[in-house]
Specification:
By secondary structure, the chain is an alpha/beta fold. The protein has helices at about 5-10, 20-25, 40-50, 100-115, 135-145, 150, 165-180, 205, 215-225, 260-275, 295-315, and strands spanning about 10, 15, 60-65, 75-80, 85-90, 115-120, 160-165, 190, 250-255, 280-285. Helix 5 crosses helix 7.
């Protein structure tokens, strides 16, 4: 481990204090992605995703479709039997990496765990397509989902938005935009380790400078790719929104050793103060993206809780 990690998170006899031991043994195997070469990092990201055990999709239909938009947006729809609600789901990857295939292990698990239709979105990636391209793609899919609820066999009053990491940040922005534009009704936000703030001025952002998988340099590069030279708006970085009232209830999951941790907790508190119902789950001993290590018991609980939270929110 680098000196940055030693100085900022505490070590005892060369060992990280507080890290879940089942996760810690995998840290040396994680690639040191820095996002300076997006094309190369996308290939590495795809290789990592391909190594994840496949989800159990035996009890559902899986269909690739294209949502008409400008440009059209590819989606993969996971439809469990007797599903009533749905979630428009956005993959992680720092706005730069990821697609329908890399998200398959997680979208399939969310569908299996929740019993909801999962509409996984293949949004455009930065830096080739900067903000607001990804948000526009996601919002087009949300609108399409609401307008085609009958065709999709879902209740239009039970549509959620959610995702991992950068995708969760885009989902939070979708909720803001839908509120502001009187767009489709959103029942719930399922935000797993969301990227919400480009400013990196929280305690965790300033102190977790060399944490596993996501570090300060990688985070800064991600935002540069996404924003370019344009200033951030609340639709790009939802933590910048001054008014959080009138937003859908949210489940927000954070990782202990994550530069984004405190902006996520702060967003949850601000939602509560604005009168929005929030369930906040801080996972001790974890780091950003560590839920991908499925052999760890804490990762299994994280994935199961995402499905359970969505099931609860869309029930009744």
């Amino acid at each position: 481990m680098s000196d940055g990690w030693r100085m900022t998170s505490g070590m005892v006899s060369g060992r990280m204090t507080g890290m879940d031991p089942e996760l810690e043994v995998f840290i040396p195997l994680f690639p040191r992605a820095d996002l300076t070469d997006p094309v190369a990092e996308r290939l590495k990201f795809a290789d990592l995703a391909a190594s994840v055990p496949a989800p159990d999709i035996a009890g559902m239909e899986v269909e690739d479709r294209v949502v008409p938009a400008d440009p059209d947006v590819p989606v993969r729809i996971y439809r469990p039997h007797e599903a009533q609600g749905a979630i428009v789901w956005l993959h992680g990857g720092g706005f730069v990496m990821g697609n329908l295939d890399t998200e398959h292990p997680w979208a399939g698990r969310v569908a299996d765990g929740s019993g909801a239709v999962v509409i996984s979105v293949g949004y455009r990636l930065a830096p080739e397509h900067r903000f607001p391209a990804a948000l526009d793609d996601a919002y087009a899919v949300l609108t399409w989902t609401a307008e085609h609820a009958a065709e999709l066999g879902i209740d239009p009053e039970r549509i959620a938005v959610g995702g991992h990491s950068a995708g969760a940040g885009i989902a939070a922005a979708m909720a803001l935009r839908a509120r502001d534009e009187q767009g489709p009704a959103i029942r719930f936000q399922l935000l797993h380790q969301p990227g919400l703030d480009d400013r990196q001025d929280t305690w965790s952002a300033r102190n977790f400078t060399d944490t596993p998988w996501l570090n300060r340099e990688k985070l800064a590069t991600s935002w540069r790719h996404y924003l370019g030279s344009a200033p951030a708006t609340p639709y790009a970085a939802p933590a910048r929104a001054e008014d959080l009232s009138g937003l859908p209830p949210a489940y927000i999951a954070t990782a202990e050793f994550d530069p984004n941790r405190d902006e996520e907790i702060g967003y949850a508190l601000r939602l509560l103060q604005a009168g929005v119902q929030v369930e906040l789950h801080q996972w001790p001993g974890t780091f950003h993206g560590s839920q991908a290590i499925l052999s760890a018991e804490v990762s299994q609980r994280q994935i199961a809780e995402l499905g359970a939270a969505l099931r609860r929110a869309l029930a009744g």
